[in-house]
Amino acid sequence: MALSKNRIKYIHSLEQKKNRKADKVFLAEGPKLVGDLLGHFPCQFLLATSEWLSRNRPLSTVADATEVSEEELSRASLLKTPQQVLAVFRQPDEETDISVISHSLCLALDDVQDPGNLGTIVRLADWFGIEHIFCSPNTVDIYNGRYRTRQTALYSPTRVHPLTEGYSRLRHFPGRREYVRTTAFEKWADCDG
Predict the structure, then answer these.
(1) Which terminus of the chain is more exposed, N or C, with fewer CB under 10 A?
(2) pLDDT: is 44 or 162 the higher one?
(3) Cis preceding linkage at 58, omega within 30
């Protein structure tokens, strides 16, 4: 079955946060990432080369698996060098409960724009035992296609919560401590909130 122009257009639209958010989906590419996510997130559809499909049968959890040529995969992929498989997964439906701040070690991020920096922050937070990371609406989301270590955020014991509403309430939450960074590469100043 040939890959339709509409499906390719849809895949490319997922590069934008607003489209991922509206459809509550994210794109994963590559054998390792797709293979790891298949058992953990519902797969909306999967495109793969015959080589990948022959090594990864049966795909009982995937309702819509399509075999494509490498040329078709190249047209659909957001990567410069496509890697045998791409899949669109549903984002988990999670209610963000900011009350965890009162009994957990948490981190709030505002305006982190680089996906690589977010990945580093998630790994460090996990290492330091931070249980929850709250991200402001203007912070890059964990479902960003360029977030190569997205796997870290999706599997980490540290839960990453995108905030849409309730973000301003964090500032006034009782018992919080605030660490303010005034300019790049300066020390963190400890301030009581």
Answers:
(1) N
(2) 44
(3) yes
